[in-house]
Input
Amino acid sequence: QVQLVESGGGSVQPGGSLRLSCAASGLTLDYYAIVWFRQAPGKEREGVSCISSSAHSIAYSDSVKGRFTISRDKAKNTAFLQMNSLTPEDTAVYYCAAAGGGYYCPDFESYHGMDYWGKGTLVTVSS
Output
């Protein structure tokens, strides 16, 4: 059974940092691009960042560029999202998704071709 499991969410004060993980089982992430999405209460889901299977292509939304860093560790079959300088506007449930077929993140914010999804981890930024 294929599973993507996010972890690392929690509560943090503004200006703080969190590192989210997306661990895969039943699936070799080597062949998939990983996209992080988030959905805040009452808002539509938003693409945050994408990393291609080779890690040669990386993209960020304007709202997180310069603050978030996406990465992947093939040996651990896991992807990560390092989030720094967090603000209350970053409060959301964060999801990771895997996209196969050689996807390389050109339009990740509007791409609908994800093959697998995790169930999400909640990030709350509040003083």
